[in-house]
Amino acid sequence: MQKNKYWNILLILVAASHLSQAGLGQNIRLAGITQDSLTGERVPYSTIELEGKGVGTLCDSAGVFELTLEESLLNGIVTVRNLGYEPKFIPVSALIHGDTIKLTPQIYAISEVTVTSFQGKNIQEKGMAHKGPNSATYGMSKWTQIAVFMDNKEGFSGRIKSAGFYIPKVHKHQTPFRLRVYSCGADGQPSDDLLQDEVILQAQKGGEWITVDLTPFNLAIPPNGYFVAMEWINAGKQYTYHEVIKGEKLKFYGQKLGLLLHQESPLTWIKFIGETWRIDDRMVGGGKYGYRNAMIKSEILIE
Description:
By secondary structure, this protein is mainly beta. The chain folds into two domains: about 100 residues, Sandwich (Immunoglobulin-like); about 180 residues, Jelly Rolls, CATH 2.60.120. The chain contains two helices and 23 strands. Strands 10, 12, 13, 14, 16, 20 and 21 form a seven-stranded antiparallel beta sheet that branches. Strands 3-2-5-6 form a four-stranded antiparallel beta sheet, with no helix packed on it. A four-stranded antiparallel beta sheet has the order 8-23-11-15, with no helix packed on it.
């Protein structure tokens, strides 16, 4: 049962009403905004989470967040993260009456880079490059990232050319989402951000690949491969919808992401807010349909 709880990607959003019905004591409400410590500007889409507790939320496009927690978590520490900023660790008690969280931009020590023209060089595609329509999907009912591993077993050197996501034409397919590119850690999981710039993507028609050119960012192909991830962001309540699954009406949010069945090996990793990355190694249909992998692809330019 515990494994099913973890791996049911169609988890319902945790609402305050559900917490109050759980009989676990009084609830506490956290609220605040995230702000750039240098410019004073609001920082949108920050992650607010109690790591290891499976609890958290995302700031909206104005940098505003609200989160209801069980009283037993009052002595915990909230971790605040956003792409391009230093993580911040704040006691839960400091946010009960609302607060402005000032995030410090990260300073990266970058060695001299030689930018090379790759016109006419070899291009190779990685990941799940499936072009046709597909009915299987990943949906989001708890803030999530989904990543696919792009191997470099050939030991290529060069640059990452592009990243792409297949967005089915269902429900709120026009919801904005964030592109993340991660290095591969020693444990084989997504690790450090390779892409330090915020790239927000949005499907228009749905039922299509959304592809972004990454050559302007000059990202070197890591020798041990990399991950391309979709991150669901809090772009507003207008992107919520409901589905009836096994007779139960459940609340979901945002775009869906296509997935492929009949895969020989699991290359897809999932991160729920407040939890660590986990590989999606579920066998579909008791093994009849193999593994599933998210429809995320990438191209590399080989020197």
